[in-house]
């Protein structure tokens, strides 16, 4: 008898919860309707293609399709790690991703803090517009600008080096400089646009905190350390977790436009190798295996980073 009562209570609670959820969704139906195009986009272009990852375990043939292609198991993953140049390509990807994390990720934070200190509103707005603009340039244009600036014969950087009494440097013709060029061009292009979220977070900090700190005699530097950065920490941690999730996805177009036979040894990354082997070499299953490997590593980094962030700062993605 008691078990029947408990079961009926459970059903009743479940029906009430379901009814409450439906009422909640109906109450905010306008918001759900607005979000519907985004949900459809992610479902079609992000989730549906995941089913195509099965070809990483097949000898995929475009004429036979997924259902007719031969199943080969982990053969492509074994081939990936046995490739003579794979470890070097993976090392390049890891190093460039690490440099971008150490140098590129803090750049928008520093720039946002500097912009926030400007008191002349008109000057601040103009400067914000100037630093935002490079983000809207394609990587082809960015590479053209960088190649022109770094040219050993006409580039302004080498003119300055020659003026100081040193020999010109062919930055894109020496493999030791390609990683610096990639990171530097990325910081110039995207750091300004990345400040938008941080400036919005800075605008939400209670000004009474700064007034109280001034009364206590705190300098601007002390206010930044004790008030601004702690207030920004939740935003920084969320964006950091999102950043490490795409640690191996540095971007094909960002690298390919800078590569040439002289710097490819230090500049080739997984994305450019996938393009060459997959699209040019038509090795679809092999490159899908590489892409799946990247995705698994990214997922592991997010899970580990989210766990550590939750334990240390209390902030997390989920």
UniProtKB/TrEMBL annotation:
PROSITE patterns: ABC_TM1. Gene3D superfamilies: MetI-like. SUPFAM superfamilies: MetI-like. One of its GO terms (biological process) is transmembrane transport. It is a multi-pass membrane protein. It is found in: Cell membrane. It holds the Pfam family BPD_transp_1. The chain crosses the membrane at residues 30-48, 94-115, 136-161, 225-244, 284-308. Belongs to the binding-protein-dependent transport system permease family. This is Sugar ABC transporter permease. It comes from Paenibacillus piri. The lineage of its organism: Bacteria, Bacillati, Bacillota, Bacilli, Bacillales.
